[in-house]
Amino acid sequence: MDITFRDKELGPVWAKVQKGERLSLEDGLILYRTPDIIGLGKMAHTVQKSRSGDGVYFVLNQKIEHTNICVLSCKFCDFAVKKGAAGAYEMTARDVLDRLTPDIKEVHITGGMPADWPWERYLDLVESVHRTLPDADVKAFTAVEIDFFHKKFRMSIEEVLRQLKAAGVRTMPGGGAEVFSERVRKQLFNQKIGAKGWLEVHRTAHRLGIPTNSTMLYGHIETIEERLQHMMKLRELQDETGGFLTFIPLAFQPGATGIKPSHRHTSAIDDLKTIAVSRLMLDNFPHIKAYWVMLTEEVAGVALNFGADDMDGTVGGEKIAHDAGAISPMSLKKDQIIRIIRAAGKIPVERDVYYNPLHLHAERVIGKIPYLNSIAFHAHLHVPGYKVLPVKPRRMGMLSEKGMIDAGLFSVMNYVEQAEQLEPIGYGLATRDQVKSVMLFSKEGWRDLDGKRIGIIDDTATSVRLLRVLLEKKYGITARFERLHGGVNDHSGLDAVLLIGDEALRHQKTGLAGFDLIYDLASEWYEWQKLPFVFAVWAAKRSLPAESKAQITRALEASLEKSNEDLAGIAGASGRRLGLTEMETVEYLTGFNYRLGEREWEAITRFAGMVRELEQPEGQVPERNDLPGSRM
Ligand code: V47
What we know:
Shape: globular
Number of strands: 22
Strand order of the largest sheet: 13-12-14-21-15-22
Bound molecules: ligand V47
């Protein structure tokens, strides 16, 4: 996208972003120092849109600060007190459960670190929440708390995390990072772990299949260089593990901390710059969060056009920021969040802790598959009056079942199951030969997979069926499928792992440690059936007016034609992020057929027939954590 900058220094930085090149510290300084706030915002917003489309995420959540008693005395914190001090409190598991309501989807637990709580009390807290609200995900304990448990209870960090995971912790919040600078640490929080310790806890969590968030406390005594170095350290770990879900810049609330003699809050300009710069620097982070509690609702609302695609949630009361003078409300109602997101011109997407969309609060939504393989459909897709949301295949099917998607590229099995409501509009995603889009990473050859455990990435609706058809009908064997969530997973105990889309592509290059054999399922199908494999079908709600369907079809055709003129231009940067050269990206994309003809429909019919023969009515894939003996 062309942006006309008032500050000419931004041009070369934008050129790098568009080519998918990584920004340096010097680039970050240019961004931070620019007076061209609107130019900076447009850059960050363009990147945000290429990742999240018009969607902005939020979650119905409840913050739990189980105690404010803390052995540490960080200078920036007005929340912590010593045991016996006025206002000191400790919640029992019962007190915590009393705060929860059935609509809650995320319980965010973090608090002080008292000297006298036994380990079992923390496990019991997590277990009670998990048992009482099994549909809610527990996001609990910062790296600082994990390090405290490790030292106090003499367990390795890995053991602490394993036990918490078994008790029901799904993800870890990003707190406690402050600013990764020894200079700042010595002045403001010298009893606490620094960058190395914080990053090591998160690295371990990612290895164990616990995705995490990350934060940066800004607006106190840190320098702009220190902020950028902080972001770059996070970016480095993300390259290594891929386990961060989001980055949350936390605006310092001066309260009575005495750190800022002026007692002044950060300026809205600094807040918006920090959101925008982080969106541009953290090129490998899926999400950037505008935490309204610290930013105020107004600044958070504007941030949704400055690079942020997430608003945290309803929160339901919090003390850390408010004890330090935050002026935002204690909680927001779902309707208030929806109003803020709509006012920013975005689709409010209610999500779970992994950023899976649960509910869209919008009409006229087109769903796109967020993988490189379908980029030609959406690189130039503009349908007046419609908003676009990237959704992984299986989730698209779930949203469509609730009537929330007007048109989209549906996983072929979702299309087949919903054919009464969905009308195909001529396009889809089919193979010409091998495509590297659905890959099985295995320890064993096909026939030796009989009775073995295969991890299945949560995003798939069709590929899991293709795998089953191949195992049972081509090779005459059966295996046990276990669902994995997107992002990081613990693959121990598995004999093979099925990945799709960009994850399959990335690992096809780098390999998946411990799984030496790699099978391309579409070529397995082709060699066997001598037919292409169709992954996905573009379809629109049958109830849409004919003119709307025609409008969408025309827009798809126009996007395909324009994209085909310059595949390297539209896809080079995305390919580079997955480790592909420009030539490899173009070769990968030309391996697909985007128009569905007779042979493709014959393939769909044959495949759907085989699936129907195999599937029992209740043939659901169990969640990995629900399987007996499979707690990790
Ligand atoms: O770790 C403490 C910060 C953090 C102040 O992961 C302060 O989704 C501003 O991490 N002014 C806790 N900040 C909050 C946090 C968080 C919040 C929302 C979502 C997520 C997530 C994480 O608050 C602490 C510390 O860095 N903090 N004092 C203060 N005066």
